[in-house]
Amino acid sequence: MTKNLKIIPLGGLGEIGKNMTLLEYGRNQIIIDCGVMFPESDMYGIDLVLPQFDYVVKNQDILRGIVLTHGHMDHIGGLPYLLQRVNAPIYGTALTIGMVERQLEEAGVRERATLEVIDDKQTLHLGPFRISPFAVAHSIPAAVGLVIDTPVGAVVHTGDYKLDETPTGGRTTDFNRLRELTPNGVLVMMGDSTNADRPGRTPTEQLVADTLDELFAAATGSRIIIATFSSLLARLQEVMRLAEKYGRQVALTGRSLQQNIELARDLGYLNVPKNLLVDVTDNVPDGKLVILSTGSQGEPRSALNRMAKGEHRQIQVHDGDTIIVSGGTIPGNEEDVGRMLNNLFARGANVIYGSLATVHVSGHGSREDMRIMLETVKPRFLIPVHGEGRHLHLHGRLAQENGLSAEDVFILRNGATWVTDGEKAWEEGSIPANDIYVDGSMVGEVGDLVMRDRERLAQDGFVVVYVPVDKKQKLAGEPSIISRGFLRMDTSGALMESARQELKRELKRNGRNHDDTVRETLQNFFYHKTQSRPVILSNIVRVQ
To answer: Where are the alpha helices (DSSP H) in 16-122?
Structure first.
């Protein structure tokens, strides 16, 4: 009896981040990528968002391995958490595996994984899956797409890609190998959808290099501070080249930046000229210094944001500094980035960012790049991945414009089970694929109810109520009401007194259900008086 192939996305659909996809054939399973998503502005207190691993844990006896496309956190950041629950071999290019190894060591789970380095010229056999990477251009070196041969047909996972013919220090997307690996056609393509709403081609990285050269030339006598992604190694290499060209030295601030540069240098992906790097505390004249920093996304604890607030212990922004924010704003970070830029301007810096100059280009292909990929692969079916809802739908429409029927394009949700026998394809139910929140050392303990409470606390504050009762649970004194983040106690005395009197009447009327009475009475009272809904915390205190 012929088995069917199942493709189950656990993350990356309807969102930017936590990319993770399962492929199943019979009693065999592989995972493509295992990433995290960074919290949105309304995810109060959350550090990271993970895919839900329960299905993988339940079926770990059939897991043959985890294959990684590249070393960005939205593709590898979930591995330390997954490996706390399962053991599995992990495959990726040398740079990707180097980044993974560092993460696993920091998390204390290195011994739970076998790390295997593969390149884009070899083929990997995992059960019935024959996996062949091919090089793609992206914003990090050693990125790959995957051709996965299965008993029912070939699957192409594009990974994150762009079609850049003039990458700085990187590789072009290897269409020749892609064609060689798919002589019998492609059953289904899982295609990057990130820039499906951007027309044309994604600009080449060389444009950024040219812009940076102009900015370096114009910054005579001033200090240059550049914030970019710590994994954008081609950009980092270009900064170092320009620093050497213009007689400057480079200081690093930001732990991830320092770690990635050290790793890339050790693996041969980054050339760091001798004596180029200095410590941020060294006495280097402003006109001879470039500071490379993390923080292009306005992250609260990042180096550049601390500079913007005047809280960096070693670097103070001053008049005349040229600050270049060389990173596209990830959706959800707009407010943080805008606030940081405002603070930098207020300190007298000359701030250059994406709206003012070409200091960043995307690592993802735009609509024309995606069209070329579709025409090259010619898949029987398309599953758009890696994008918010609009990106997935627009990718699907593009595919239909290029010959696929609507029935052959599958806009899935996380957890959906896509099934094919090699001829037909269909959806077959779903598995749990909820967001799992990481808050400090807590993983999964913070759920939707807690998040709703945090949202209410952030929006309307809270009210604490102390109710004294006797041993018979009858009111034994005056209730006390304290407000935080809702109303000022020193200016709202009349309102609070009215609330207290209303609460007394209801407590006397409703007997012993004090907790419910407190919450219902005050929620209704405050909403009627203020149109706000503070969180009500009741404390029933027994007195003698």
So the answer is: 54-58, 73-76, 79-82, 94-107
Q: CA-to-CA distance for 19 and 533, rounded, in angstroms? A: 36
Task: Tell me the C-alpha distance between 35 and 333, whole Å.
Answer: 18
Q: Which residues have CB under 8 Å from 39's CB, separation 6+?
A: 46, 47, 48, 49, 332, 437
Strand, coil or helix: what is 125? strand
What averages of pLDDT result for each successive group of 10 residues across the chain (544 residues)?
A: 88 94 97 87 70 96 97 95 94 95 91 92 96 95 96 98 83 94 97 96 92 95 92 90 95 90 90 91 93 89 91 91 89 83 94 92 95 97 97 97 96 97 96 83 68 69 81 77 74 80 78 74 84 81 73
Rounded Cα distance between 239 and 248, Å, is: 10
Domains 5-200+362-443 and 461-542 share a fold: no
* Among the listed residues 51, 15, 48, 49, the one whose alpha carbon sits nearest the alpha carbon of residue 33: 51
Please give the helix or strand (H or E) that residue 394 lies within, else none. helix 389-401
The C-alpha torsion from 347 through 47 and 113 to 67, rounded to 10°, is -80
**What dotted CATH number matches 205-352?**
3.40.50.10710
Is there a contact between 360 and 326 (Cβ–Cβ < 8 Å)?
Answer: yes
Phi, psi (deg, nearest 5) at residue 517:
-60, -45
Query: Is 364 considered catalytic here?
Result: yes
| Active-site residue, selected from the candidate residues 33, 74, 174, 192 | 192
Going from N- to C-terminal start, the domains of the chain cover 5-200+362-443, 205-352, 461-542
Residue tagged active-site, from 72, 364, 386, 391: 364
User: What does the pLDDT read at residue 1?
Assistant: 46
| The residue count for the chain | 544
Enter the pTM of the model. Answer: 0.83
CATH topology of domain 5-200+362-443: Metallo-beta-lactamase; Chain A (3.60.15)
User: What are phi and psi for residue 251, nearest 5 degrees?
Assistant: -110, 145
Q: What distance in Å separates the CA atoms of residue 521 and residue 47, rounded to the nearest whole number? A: 35
**Topology annotation, domain 461-542:** Ubiquitin-like (UB roll) (3.10.20)
Which residue, chain included where needed, has tokens 């596209």?
A: 328
Neighbours of 325 (CB within 10 A): 27
Q: Are 501 and 476 in contact (CB under 8 A)?
A: no
192 in active site: yes
Cβ pair 383, 418 in contact under 8 A: yes
CB 83 within 8 A of CB 104: yes
